[in-house]
Amino acid sequence: MASVTEATTPEGGRVGRVRWTICALLFFATTINYIDRQMISVLKPTLEAEFGWSETTYADIVFAFQLSYAIGYFIFGHVMDRIGARYGYSLAALIWGTAAMMTSAARDVGHFMLARFVLGLGESGNFPAGIKAVAEWFPKKERAFAVGIFNAGANIGAILTPLIAPLLVVAFGWRAAFLITGGLVFVWIAIWLLVYRSPREKKNLSAAELAYIESDPADTPGKVPWSSLLRRRQTWAYAVGKFLIDPIWFFLLFWLPDFFAKQHGLDLMTFGPPLVAIYIISDVGSVAGGWLSSALIKRGWTINRARKTAMLICALCVPPVALAPGIDNLWTAVLLIGLATAAHQGFSANLYTLPSDLFPRKAVGGVIGIGGTIGAIGGMFMAKFTGWMLDTTGSYVPMFIIAGSAYLVALLAIHLLVPRMEPVEEV
């Protein structure tokens, strides 16, 4: 892994590591993003008992988040292309931090839906901003690895939430828990505005590292209308991939605590270790999946072959998760789900790089926005289906069967739409 991060000049000298500082900031933002996102699922048993929610009610709250997430992706895809990652990311973080804190004042299901709607609006800017920053700060051969690292923040957030949420609830109550976790993002915003600049504006960036970052062929300037992007098969390859796999990740994120509570008798104080184990495994998958394709490209593989090989390996690791609802042993179920979430993150790290692989930088935000919107729409359908299925049958089996098959179907769709991953010459 070190060979990917320790880039050298043609003369053998090191080019510098300032770009990895930017990657670290993206990682921490994504960590906070997922803490705020997952609080509702970790506290579901507590809130369910206090407010008398049914599964359909909870699904409606998740649906509100997914709906605004879809709308927000559409908006922030434009925002990042117009005002850039520095201010666009700050705006998104400001919205989601405020919404997370708003949740502490909720008194009924309508309040929760409103708070989650605003949260989804802000949180939708995280990945368009992160991908935009990676496209600006990393050459193509390092992008999947960089995306894998900052995407691993999702797993760290998912690890920390079931650990800190019970402590905060016991010490201060669930309302204070939302206030405290929501407030973390404002610390990050201050650091981001202080540190982040484009490479050419960064004073401590060496000439060697700037040259390395800009080693790909230069893009033509200008803005790209979404109408032009929607006519491209490459856009739909990314969007269809997101439509098929994003619902699986959202399902696991929002329903895993409930799955362990109902299938294995765990509660707020005991489902932390299984969730932590799952997301630690996921972190390995996120970094390894991004590293693998980057390492293969370093070895001379084409982007097409490297990305699709990494995605195929990940997709083949997911089908066993369909067995999880029928397994009585908790830790066997944890291992199967952990393998699937690791594979998701590895697959996702490579999928996230496709817009920057296939499109000029001026179009990346737009493609990410389109794909994120389509992915969130898929998540909306999954949320409603899950709530209806659980209220009707009480069974998690159909959702896990869908999860087990989604990634191979997604890779097939991507390959059919883009048999060869070659950059779009004009948009």
From TrEMBL:
<dbReference type="InterPro" id="IPR020846">
    <property type="entry name" value="MFS_dom"/>
</dbReference>
<feature type="transmembrane region" description="Helical">
    <location>
        <begin position="333"/>
        <end position="352"/>
    </location>
</feature>
<keyword id="KW-0812">Transmembrane</keyword>
<feature type="transmembrane region" description="Helical">
    <location>
        <begin position="176"/>
        <end position="196"/>
    </location>
</feature>
<feature type="transmembrane region" description="Helical">
    <location>
        <begin position="236"/>
        <end position="256"/>
    </location>
</feature>
<feature type="domain" description="Major facilitator superfamily (MFS) profile">
    <location>
        <begin position="22"/>
        <end position="422"/>
    </location>
</feature>
<feature type="transmembrane region" description="Helical">
    <location>
        <begin position="18"/>
        <end position="35"/>
    </location>
</feature>
<dbReference type="Pfam" id="PF07690">
    <property type="entry name" value="MFS_1"/>
</dbReference>
<keyword id="KW-1133">Transmembrane helix</keyword>
<protein>
    <submittedName>
        <fullName>MFS transporter</fullName>
    </submittedName>
</protein>
<feature type="transmembrane region" description="Helical">
    <location>
        <begin position="364"/>
        <end position="383"/>
    </location>
</feature>
<feature type="transmembrane region" description="Helical">
    <location>
        <begin position="309"/>
        <end position="327"/>
    </location>
</feature>
<feature type="transmembrane region" description="Helical">
    <location>
        <begin position="87"/>
        <end position="106"/>
    </location>
</feature>
<dbReference type="InterPro" id="IPR050382">
    <property type="entry name" value="MFS_Na/Anion_cotransporter"/>
</dbReference>
<dbReference type="InterPro" id="IPR036259">
    <property type="entry name" value="MFS_trans_sf"/>
</dbReference>
<feature type="transmembrane region" description="Helical">
    <location>
        <begin position="395"/>
        <end position="418"/>
    </location>
</feature>
<feature type="transmembrane region" description="Helical">
    <location>
        <begin position="145"/>
        <end position="170"/>
    </location>
</feature>
<dbReference type="InterPro" id="IPR011701">
    <property type="entry name" value="MFS"/>
</dbReference>
<keyword id="KW-0472">Membrane</keyword>
<feature type="transmembrane region" description="Helical">
    <location>
        <begin position="276"/>
        <end position="297"/>
    </location>
</feature>
<feature type="transmembrane region" description="Helical">
    <location>
        <begin position="56"/>
        <end position="75"/>
    </location>
</feature>
<dbReference type="InterPro" id="IPR000849">
    <property type="entry name" value="Sugar_P_transporter"/>
</dbReference>
